Amino acid sequence: MADREREAGRLDRSTRDATVTGALGSRMRLSSFLSELVILVIALVLMWWTGLWPRLEFDPVAVIIGALVGLACAGGALLLVNSQLNALKGLREDFNLFINLFADSSLSDLAIISVLAGICEEALFRGVAQAWVATWSNAHIAVIIVAVVFGLTHAISVRYAVFVTVLGLVLGYLFYFTGSILAAMMAHAVYDFFALLWATRALNKRPASQTS
After folding, report:
1. CA nearest to 142, candidates 154, 134, 153
2. Three-state secondary-structure class, residue 46
3. Contact partners, residue 182, CB within 8 Å, separation at least 6
4. Which of 11, 44, 144, 187 could disulfide-link to 66, CB 3.0 to 4.6 Å?
5. What pLDDT is stored for residue 210 in this prediction?
6. Are the CB atoms for 141 and 117 separated by under 8 Å?
């Protein structure tokens, strides 16, 4: 009897935890949608104000390169998450904290979030901010400065900010070398989608004792 009661208590706690996580996830998705739209509005206003409009011509080669870069970055992130190195333990915890909020997201949720992030954030950071910084410095300084700011805007911890800064450097140089904002948008969207997809699906397959 005592064993059954303890098991029932664990199941009840698991149900409550799942409900809380689901509610947080729903709010997180809504917050993500709205914040990305606000970022896009800010980007468009700054483009209008500065007169710096990124080139939007479709270049299939640049877009394919962007997709491959995004896949490579997603694969690298997953290697870090799955690494057993003690030095990366804190970063793994940061990833898991973030991924847990999207654990119950549908495929369409992840796709919408990823596409919005790719378009809106790249329009702001690479499309206008990097171009503007380059007008009073040089291209390499612009890539570095904007990547650091990009990392700071994602700073759930110092470790995660450093990781996102490195990702920002990759996106910044992709934009610099291809000259295509669409390549950076594609890379960002593909990275977000596959990193979240692989990580959340792997998380959902773990035993409850490993995800709590």
Report:
1. 134
2. helix
3. 56, 58, 59, 62, 63, 66
4. 187
5. 47
6. no
